[in-house]
Amino acid sequence: MPRVKRGNVRRAKRKKLLARAKGFYQTKSKLYRAAKESVDTALKYAFVGRRRKKRDFRRLWVMRINAAAREHGLTYGQLIAGLKAAGNPIDRKTLADLAVTQPAAFARLAKLAGDARPAPAKAPARAEAKAARPKARASAAAARA
Q1: DSSP class of residue 74?
Q2: Phi-psi map region of 6: left, alpha, beta (phi>0 left; psi -120 to 50 alpha)
Q3: How far apart are CA 109 and CA 98, in angstroms?
Q4: Are residues 101 and 93 in contact, defined by beta-carbon separation less than 8 angstroms?
Q5: 58 φ, ψ (degrees, to nearest 5)
Q6: Residue ranges of domains in the chain, CATH in brackets
Q7: E-strand spans in 14-134?
Q8: Are 103 and 64 in contact (CB under 8 A)?
């Protein structure tokens, strides 16, 4: 089998990696081994960041929608529930954009959601809830006496 020296291939590979490490601090942009470690780490963080970006933007949109909804006397959950009940499900990105760029349009949506939102489920009164529980406490008290 003939000997393979990889002169051009190795040089191209190293050059490509050092180009990716451009702008890194000190030897991490100059020496191949240090640059390789740094580039691998950077790629790992980039991979994680691409997934995290989606979460972060959704959190931002929810915060903006919540702030705008509270200006109209609704909470975020009430606004979303009202929009669903009205049969007008708008995604959060669009809602947040409307809240920032077109407050009048958002106000109309908030009014629509406020009118259409279902009545809150009323929690049973404490006395009713206590009466509905099994008589475990009564039997425990009788056993102690």
Answers
A1: -
A2: left
A3: 10
A4: no
A5: -65, -40
A6: 9-116 (1.10.1900.20)
A7: none
A8: no
Rounded-to-integer distance, Cα 113 and Cα 86, Å: 7
Q: For 72-101, where are the alpha helices, taking DSSP H only?
A: 76-85, 92-101
Q: What would the pLDDT profile of 125-142 be if each residue is shown by its tens digit?
A: 777 766 666 666 666 667
Residue pair 82/114 in contact (Cβ under 8 Å)? The answer is yes
Phi, psi (deg, nearest 5) at residue 6: 55, 35
Helices (H) and strands (E) in the chain, counts: 7, 0
CB of 31 closer than 8 Å to CB of 63: no
Does 131 or 84 have the greater pLDDT score?
Answer: 84
Contact, 100 vs 135, CB < 8 A? Answer: no
The pTM is what? Answer: 0.70
